[in-house]
Design brief:
Blueprint (H helix, E strand, L loop, with lengths): L4 E4 H6 L4 H11 L2 E4 L1 H6 L6 H8 L2 H86 L1
Antiparallel strand pairs: 1-2
């Protein structure tokens, strides 16, 4: 038996599918497609099946979908957790090494920056004082007149 059911692009739009999925559907199928198991397998990696299941399946079909996909989801989560832990281990080690290697350079930067700022303040102090000396009476003159 070759069971199928038509899915319309307008249905996806009406249900709020994201722009990327709407555009992909339109690109692949135009305005409608006959949904079959074979078709879905052929585009399995391209569409958001979780969204489709939540929005397009009846309550009994959703329950069956959940039952059938639960073991695969659990396996994905197991693998993801393991990969995430390994990533965090490597990242933490790399970050610690980065901090160890860059700490002397950062300390030197801070030392040089502090010296440069002190020199800036020394050089500009007299000019700032002169500017303020001229500014005060100029304000008074403008305010009074």
């Amino acid at each position: 038996m070759n069971a199928s059911r038509t899915l319309e692009l307008s249905t996806l739009i009406k249900l709020g599918a994201c722009k990327g999925q709407v555009n992909l559907f339109r690109e692949k199928f135009g305005f409608s497609v006959e949904v079959t198991p074979e078709l879905c397998i052929g585009v399995a990696a391209q569409f958001d099946w979780g969204w489709a299941a939540r929005h397009l399946l009846s309550a009994p079909a959703w329950a069956e979908y959940e039952r059938v996909t639960a073991p695969a989801w659990a396996e994905y989560e197991r693998v993801r957790a393991s990969a995430s832990a390994e990533y965090e281990r490597v990242r933490a080690s790399a970050w610690a090494e980065y901090k160890r290697v860059t700490a002397p350079a950062w300390a030197e930067y801070e030392r040089v920056k502090a010296q440069a700022w002190a020199e800036y303040e020394r050089v500009t102090a007299q000019a700032w004082a002169e500017y303020q000396r001229v500014m005060a009476p100029a304000f008074a003159e403008g305010y009074i007149s």
